[in-house]
Design a protein that fits this description.
Length: 324
């Protein structure tokens, strides 16, 4: 029986709230010591995220008595890159972000993200700084293990993700009891297999960086050839205890190329019957002025789950969206 009278109570205990506040303070002190500027950018934007598998939360508002459709940002990336193009200095932000249709033990529509950008850092330097930060927040130093995306598929599923065909991916899913159908979307099949069969095994011995992702998974990252001649995105993700904690890019600084990628996203959205997203042309123009840099987004609530040994994100949040 539901206790309606006490339903107002936060899902996070007061002891965990104190511990999370301490972790946030540690993060801010970490960046202050490194001379990284904390900034704040708008949560409400005129532009949504074009990525096919990320749903923006839309908002109706009024400006000068005119009704408008806006979006709660899925990350502060677009606005932060506009700032970075002008300031040309390292910046970070801790803020609430929103992704529609998110619900589960590791997901909520609203969550807290840390995002930072480092001019003149390559991905190795950014990974080293991430390692420092993880050591500070978890109160212990743990070396990172690096694992190539393709090698993970070979080790866990005995298939090469870049050279295999959709039929093989579909057969692999069925063999492992996965009944979802991704049709002719090869990257969709790869994402499905990765999330169900590979991701839950990552980062239990040591925090693990997955590198060299397919280009289709990183629309704002630079692309290069791997040792086997396949195009890969200059990107890594950090996993701890089977949980994705952070996602980093060697940032694309080419407005024309970025516009093409956004337009391709919207075409895919249209083909799938999804709403097309207005493209942020201010970001496109700022992109050409970006310094060479790497950037990273980190899920604060998930990192806190790892820090405290929590099994459900509701314990790391005051209120889940269905009770907000």
């Amino acid at each position: 029986m539901v206790d309606i009278k006490n339903n107002y109570r936060p899902s996070m205990s007061v002891d965990l709230a104190i511990a999370k506040a301490e972790m946030l303070l540690d993060i801010r002190q970490f960046f202050a010591k490194k001379g990284v500027l904390e900034i704040t950018t708008p949560i409400l934007s005129n532009y949504g995220n074009t990525e096919v598998f990320i749903d923006s939360v839309s908002v109706n508002f009024h400006h000068d008595n005119q009704g408008k459709l806006g979006y709660l940002h899925t990350s502060p990336e677009f606005a932060m890159k506009r700032v970075l193009a002008d300031y040309q200095i390292p910046i970070y932000q801790i803020c609430q972000v929103f992704r529609d249709n998110e619900k589960g033990h590791k997901h909520n529509i609203e969550f807290t993200m840390l995002e930072w950008y480092r001019p003149n850092f390559n991905l190795n330097e950014l990974a080293n700084e991430l390692n420092e930060l993880i050591g500070v927040t978890l109160n212990k130093h743990l070396p990172f293990k690096t694992y190539r995306y393709a090698q993970a598929f070979l080790d866990f599923l005995s298939i090469h993700p870049f050279s295999t065909d959709i039929h093989t991916l579909q057969h692999t899913a069925i063999t492992h009891g996965i009944s979802l159908d991704m049709g002719d979307d090869k990257q969709g099949w790869l994402d499905l297999l990765f999330s169900h069969l590979i991701e839950p095994n990552l980062g239990f011995d040591l925090p693990t960086l997955i590198t060299d992702y397919p280009p289709a998974t990183a629309s704002l990252a630079k692309i290069e050839k791997d040792n086997d001649g396949f195009d890969v995105a200059k990107r890594f993700e950090l996993y701890i205890n089977g949980i994705e904690i952070a996602n980093a890019y060697d940032e694309l600084a080419n407005g024309d190329e970025l516009l093409k990628r956004f337009q391709h996203d919207n075409k895919t959205r249209q083909n799938l019957g999804l709403p097309m997203m207005p493209i942020d042309m201010d970001l496109i123009h700022a992109c050409d002025d970006l310094p060479n840099c790497s950037g990273i987004a980190l899920g604060i609530d998930r990192l806190f789950m790892v820090r405290e040994g929590l099994t459900d994100i509701s314990e790391a949040l005051m209120f889940m969206t269905d009770r907000a």
